[in-house]
Amino acid sequence: MARAADPEGRRTVGFITKCDALQAGDELSVLRIAKNEVEKLTHSWFAVKNRSTQEIADGVTIDERHKYEKAFFATQSPWVELKKDRVGTHALREFLGGLLYNHIRSEFPEVVKDIEKLAASTQKELELLGPARQTTADQRRFLTRLANAYQREVSNALSGNYDAELDGNSPMKLRMHVSKLSDRFAESMARSGHAKIFQDVHGGIDEQFARSSGDVGDIMDWIRGLYQESRGAELPGTVNPRVLENMFRQQSSPWKGVATIYIERIIATIQNFNESAFEQMVPDEDLKHKLKQGFRTILMDERGGILQTVNHYFAENLSAIREERVLARLEAAGFEDGDRFDMARVIKRFHLTNEDQAVNDIHDILKAYYKVAMKRFTDNVVLQVTERHLLGMDGPVKSLSPDLIADFEDSDLTDIAGENFSTSSARNELAVRLERFQRALEIARQAAI
């Protein structure tokens, strides 16, 4: 059995018992073993004499046993041939004590290192749980520290100051994700924000508004139909302002859907950031769940709120479109820059019915207004809703702040940060374990082996 565990015999100490009970003629073979001539061991062999069954029955004491053993190895042949430090339980005990001491001495530095590692890991676990949160003062102090740490994470995430160890698509890269979503939103608005495709001054599709799907019907027919349906008491060729309002509402009807998708994605991005931040900062699962749930509620309350405003460059854009239309008609009539032309011919070429003129004007006004309004709407959704409202100082992404914690009632603190039984028990267990390791290290330093 010992050979299986120690094939080379480097760690095994052999000892022979009941040397006095051997049969006549067996002594020499056993003696050779005791002299380490048969089964050779690095630490060699010991010979001892235990109490016999009769001696035990006769009440021989331990002290008497030691005397009998010493006398036996000093007088009985062939055992007198063995070295004195290799016979008797006293010699065996001294040798084993020295062997153990040397082993401890050689392994002691590693043992100390193991204890230090265990103490450090226990200390880290204890620190991850944070300080005790039994009282409201403890809870307020803990949440305030957490809020300060969270604000630093938000500031870094919004400024693009990312941890070098974050992977490329980490939720903690908040600014990167928001910028990508905002760019995609602007592209979606330009591509899909209009219900009808505007025409250029030559009557073809304006490439700025071209798309491969959706309603590609003739916008002029649509304008003419709405114009005819809305005629009132106004003079021929003039436009009822309500017609323009109605057309703009219909033409911009996809905006809400495009913007809603964008806002939903921004909110989901903020929620992913919050949850990732809490995963890193809050080891307490119960507290982590409460904080995540609180932020989900805040974000749900922030949905909507999209702004629509008018741009003061509207008149400029409308004037430019009208000028382009005039130049296009001149080119169609065969005139070029610097040509002399017959005024009557120009007037004849430019003559339109009142209805045609009204339809053209409505198209140009609607197009000019739409371009500016769409850009302004896009900018406002990004700047007012995303940047100022959702990511701003009072936005949900920054709602966990020291000021918020300061306003909490005691009951709020207990509901959010109060420790449950399992957390409290884990902290106590870790504290006891850490104390044991620290005491062991102190003993090791005093031993100085």
UniProtKB/TrEMBL annotation:
User: What SUPFAM superfamilies does UniProt report for this protein, alphabetically?
Assistant: P-loop containing nucleoside triphosphate hydrolases
> PROSITE patterns from the xrefs?
GED
User: Which is one GO molecular function term here?
Assistant: microtubule binding
InterPro entries from the entry? Dynamin (IPR022812), Dynamin_stalk (IPR000375), GED_dom (IPR020850), P-loop_NTPase (IPR027417)
Q: Which residue ranges does the record assign to the GED domain? A: 359-449
A Pfam entry, by short name: Dynamin_M
Q: Which GO terms describe its biological process?
A: endocytosis; intracellular distribution of mitochondria; mitochondrial fission; peroxisome fission
Q: Spell out the protein name for this chain.
A: GED domain-containing protein
Q: What is the lineage of its organism?
A: Eukaryota, Fungi, Dikarya, Ascomycota, Pezizomycotina
